[in-house]
Amino acid sequence: MLKRMMPLILMVCLSSLLALPATAGDHPKGGDHPQAGDHPKAAKAPTVEEQIAGMEKMCLETADARGKRQEEKSLHERLGGDEKIAQMFRNVLARHRVNESIKHTMDGVDDDMLVEHLVEFVSAGTGGGATYTGKSMPEAHRDMNLTDADFLAAGGDIVAAMQEMEYGQNEIDEFICILVSLKGQVVFK
Predict the structure, then answer these.
(1) pLDDT tens string 71-102
(2) Rounded CA gap, 123 and 130, in Å?
(3) What is the pLDDT of residues 132-189, one digit of tens each?
(4) Across the chain, how many H-helices and E-strands are there?
């Protein structure tokens, strides 16, 4: 169960874009504010599919900038190294345990062991030098029956934890893009 949960935590970052900004087209006359005679249209929350598409677009558009930042200083180092990453994941797990959408995925999970594996996974993928020895993403998630909505819920917890720890937006976005790149390996529904 523990190894199945490791990658779930990583995918959590994705929902930082849960509240995509409204566009001018959301109002009848195309402006930011209703005009005289307009019938205000209630703001429509983006669908799960729209949120994921927004994240994928952001990742494509920022790929060069993210690559340059990684060349200058690894994301692992900008995240504060293994100790700070472990602290972030302890925060994420605490959030998962009370998140009604995904707390069922935490049943029977040993938090200390999971944090250890997550730090190894992140270190291996962000320039920290570790070698990840856990299960592959598909193997770890195949039986979890995760949906895109679960992916976003987990991502929201990661983003909230990163914001609480005062990570910069560049680091949050870079982490999100790593998770977006793994989505197809963890969501099978």
Answers:
(1) 999 999 999 999 999 999 999 999 999 999 99
(2) 5
(3) 988 888 988 888 889 999 999 999 999 999 999 999 999 999 999 999 999 999 998 7
(4) 9, 0
Class of the CATH-defined domain 2-17+47-186: mainly alpha
Closest CA to 13 of 137, 170, 161, 120: 161
Q: Which are the contacts of 60, defined by CB distance < 8 A and separation ≥ 6?
A: none
- Global pTM exceeds 0.85: no
* Whole-number Å distance between alpha carbons of 80 and 160: 17
The four Cα atoms 137, 157, 52, 170 give a dihedral, to 10 degrees, of -100
Cα gap 83→14, rounded to integer Å:
22
> What own/partner pairs with CB < 8 Å and gap ≥ 24 does 123-129 have?
123/76, 123/82, 123/85, 125/178, 126/74, 126/75, 126/76, 126/79, 126/178, 127/70, 127/74, 127/75, 127/76, 127/77, 128/74, 128/76, 128/77, 128/81, 128/82, 129/76
- Kindly state the tokens that stand for 82: 């293994």
Residue 64, token pair as written in the block: 């060069």
**Which residue matches tokens 């087209």?**
25
Q: Which two tokens stand for residue 80?
A: 């504060």
Contact present, 51 and 147 (Cβ < 8 Å): no
Q: What are phi and psi of 75, to 5 degrees?
A: -60, -35
